[in-house]
Amino acid sequence: MSTNGLILEGGGMRGIYTAGVLEYFSEQELYFPYTIGVSAGACMGASYLSRQLGRNRVVNVDWVSDPRYISWGNLLKKGQLFGMDFIFDEIPNKLVPFDYEAFQNSPEEYVIGTTDCMTGESVYYAKNDPDYDLLRLLRASSSLPFIAPIVEFGDRKLLDGGIADPIPLRESERQGFKRNVLILTRNSDYRKSPSRFPWMLKRAYAKYPKLVETMLRRHEVYNETLDYIESQEKAGNVFVIRPQETMTVGRMERDKEKLDALYMQGYRDAGNLMPSLQEWMGITKG
To answer: What is the rounded average pLDDT of the residues 122-138?
Structure first.
């Protein structure tokens, strides 16, 4: 196991790229002592650490055409575009069983980032915390504004982890991991634009003014984080893996062929970059 951290960005269905990268890592038995993810990245990371090769592909490609997974019907019936009960209960507990024991017994620390609606700040939950509830926290971290309800956990009201801390590199650094591998889900030229509907945010989340403030600054935080990543990459402290081909998959993508192609792109990119990554990590091939 390396002494580096691993950071997993979210991005809705674009997270299937991360799944492809992690699949290659699993095949190479490459794991990290500290892994932190938000939203879709956190979901992909869970199956990676439970050592269930192929599971992310089955869940996020094979099942995506099921209307219970993602559909406008879900939004009309339950106020959520993604079927959160289906994704975070029926799939892991019945249809594509998740290996909770293997996950819990894995030696790696695993952290899920969420956003606190009252404070507008990030809250991180580590696997070894006494109140850790994997599925509840993955649901919270993946609950996008407008298309998923707020998740109550303990005394907090939580939403998508990518709102407050979209790429939690600095949290990994705070935990002592000064060298980190990042799996990003956007092309290198991407920069986030300001919200086009600030009035909708203010109306929908009027009870949570701090959350609204955070969401209105989200593009600034995201773009500043990309600048910081670039500086750390130049300094040799960060190794970035991101889509090399032009992104054609959207956050709500349901096209199985496009999703599978992006999965395979992640797998190929990881394979192509592995020699450089091993050199960066100081791994010598025996």
So the answer is: 96
Q: For the purposes of burial, counting CB atoms within 10 Å of the CB of 231, is it exposed (0-12), middle (13-18) or buried (19 or more)?
A: exposed
Q: How far apart are CA 111 and CA 121, in angstroms?
A: 16
| Residue 276 CB coordination number (10 Å) | 11
* pTM attached to this predicted model: 0.95
DSSP code for 76: H
Any idea what DSSP says for residue 176?
Answer: T
Mean pLDDT of the chain, nearest integer: 94
Q: How many CB atoms are closer than 10 A to CB 48? A: 29
pLDDT over 90 at 159, yes or no: yes
Q: Check whether 183 has a pLDDT greater than 60.
A: yes
- Round to whole Å and give the CA distance between 281 and 3: 8
CA distance 133 to 151: 12
Coil, strand or helix: which one is 166? coil
Q: How many CB atoms lie within 10 A of CB 115?
A: 30
pLDDT for position 285: 62
Integer Cα distance of 84 and 70 in angstroms = 9
In angstroms, the CA 2 to CA 276 distance is 15
